[in-house]
Write a structure and sequence with these properties.
This protein is of the alpha+beta class. The chain has helices at 34-43, 69-81, and strands at residues 2-3, 8-9, 20-27, 47-54, 59-66, 85-88. The protein has a single domain (15-88), classed as ACT domain (Alpha-Beta Plaits). The protein is built from 2 helices and 6 strands; from the N terminus they run βββαββαβ. The relative contact order is 0.25.
């Protein structure tokens, strides 16, 4: 997809049937928290599909594959409990 206003080319991962894809916006206290974010996603059993981090303000746009919506909710709760500000992005 091309966002002509923001002058961006947006490439989304191809998902297999039955795969539940979530897009998250995660605000970071500092850029060093990216590795902690990735580790928490992997430890939750989710599959990281895409991560795009922006330095100012410090945030990451993340696409993950989870088993179902319940697993997605658990991931958001796990990230929030570790101090990350997480918002599910509907696209």
């Amino acid at each position: 997809m091309v966002d002509q206003v923001r002058r961006e080319l947006i490439i989304r991962p191809i998902t297999s049937s039955g795969e539940y894809l979530m897009n998250l916006e995660v605000r970071l206290e500092n850029p060093e928290k990216v590795s902690e974010l990735v580790n928490l996603i992997v430890e939750s059993g989710s599959e990281l599909k895409m991560i795009n981090c922006i330095p100012n303000p410090s945030k990451c746009l993340v696409s993950v594959s989870v088993a179902d919506s319940t697993a997605g909710e658990r991931l958001v709760e796990a990230l929030s409990s570790k101090g990350f500000s997480v918002k599910v992005v509907e696209e």
